[in-house]
Amino acid sequence: MYFSHLMLCDRREGLSSQARYEQQLEEVRLLEELGYWCCWFAEHHFAGYALMPDCLLMAAAAARETRRIRLGAGVVVLPFQHHPIRVAEQAAMVDCLSHGRLELGFGRGYQPHEFAGTDIVNVPQFRGYLTHEQVLNSIRWFATQVMPAFQPVAAS
Questions:
Q1: Stretches in the chain below the pLDDT threshold 50
Q2: pLDDT tens digits, residue range 48-79?
Q3: Which of 10, 19, 111, 122 is the most exposed, fewest CB within 10 Å of its CB?
Q4: Residue 72: which of 53, 96, 88, 91 has the closest Cα?
Q5: Which CATH number belongs to the domain containing residue 125 in this structure?
Q6: How many structural domains are present in the chain?
């Protein structure tokens, strides 16, 4: 049996965001000492209760603090201005920094205030954008390519 922990990074009265992030990183170190298999980081936007808008960034910070525990981005909310190429690049980088310990979860989002805050319908890159499945397939494809299939443009 494997044990994991979901980290929301909730706000704490009297603690600055910086102090709370440090506290959360200390918690990840403790989870590793206790033998947990994975620590998952929850992504939330415009929430009065949470401080973690980028679970991949938090996983990268935790990678520098730990050696064994797996680190989960749970979940990367794809509609919130996460372009498939960017997600694939960031995930690959975190996986390298963590020496292969990244677990990656994707979602569509579910909280109305987060969609309202991102104004998805008015962001040009998302107007008429791909379906959730198409985005996931794009990320899988980009994550397995050493170099893009197109020729780079030289600039002078």
A1: 122, 124-125, 127-128
A2: 777 787 899 999 999 999 999 999 998 887 77
A3: 122
A4: 91
A5: 3.20.20.30
A6: 1
